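Chapter review. Work through the record for Small VCP/p97-interacting protein before attempting the end-of-chapter questions.
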Amino acid sequence: MPMRLNKRMGMCLPCFGGAADDVVVTPDPEIRRRQLAEAAEKRQKETTYRGVKNPEAVERKKKKQEEIEKQEMTTSVSGGGGGLRWQVG
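Structure tokens for Small VCP/p97-interacting protein:
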């Protein structure tokens, strides 16, 4: 009984024909590095805001709190008393 061979059997390299369409071109290292960095940043954002309905509001609150803390630090340093006042009499 003769064996039937698949027409593409054994054609795994482009020089043998037919496989040139299957070759995946890898981008240069700089583009690949940038893509990986973007993907990592996206994953980090998704993890940070998991379960939060409104991430923009959370960011605004966070920035506002940082500004308030920064103001408190600058006023306490220039005031020289740490914010405590004594009244005698």
